[in-house]
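Bumping my old thread because nobody answered last time. Still need a sequence for this structure:
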């Protein structure tokens, strides 16, 4: 028995009213916001400044989910194109403001450095900078940032100038 072919090429008349559903998906506002959030978090990390990723994500997600729940109650389904128009995107800079954080503690940043003595590798620790731990005043989330001595010197020079 010969295997039957289940799929066939559509005719021109069938293609006329055809709307493809594969490969035409549009990103939702939540997905776009999440990408922006990751970029902004990386930006603050490179600047050695605290940024509350947790607050930024949860604030937007809560607004987004509340609006989606409202649409489900009203219409019975979620129309993401309408949902994306109604939800406002919060300003990401607000989640990196210095007033939002307090310094909890500073500790030594130690690095393991191998030295060779008589052909053997001996490891000892060397301080390369400090770890500065920040606490978000809103969600009480902790954020630790490693700052090298060179960056500390630059920071001190900026304060005196």
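Sorry it took so long. Here it is:
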């Amino acid at each position: 028995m010969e295997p039957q072919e289940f799929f066939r090429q559509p005719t021109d008349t069938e293609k006329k009213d055809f709307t493809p559903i594969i490969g035409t998906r549009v990103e939702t506002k939540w997905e776009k916001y999440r990408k922006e959030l990751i970029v902004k978090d990386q930006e603050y990390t490179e600047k050695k400044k605290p940024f509350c990723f947790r607050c930024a994500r949860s604030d937007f997600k809560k607004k987004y989910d509340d609006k989606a729940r409202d649409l489900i109650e009203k219409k019975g389904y979620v129309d993401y194109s309408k949902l994306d128009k109604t939800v406002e995107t919060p300003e990401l800079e607000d989640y990196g403001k210095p007033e939002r954080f307090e310094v909890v503690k500073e500790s030594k940043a130690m690095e393991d450095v191998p030295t060779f003595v008589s052909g053997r590798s001996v490891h000892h620790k060397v301080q390369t900078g400090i770890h500065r731990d920040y606490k978000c005043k809103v969600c009480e989330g902790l954020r630790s940032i490693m700052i090298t001595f060179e960056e500390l010197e630059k920071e001190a020079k900026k304060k005196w100038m």
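The chain is about 40% helix and 25% strand. Let me know if any region looks off to you.
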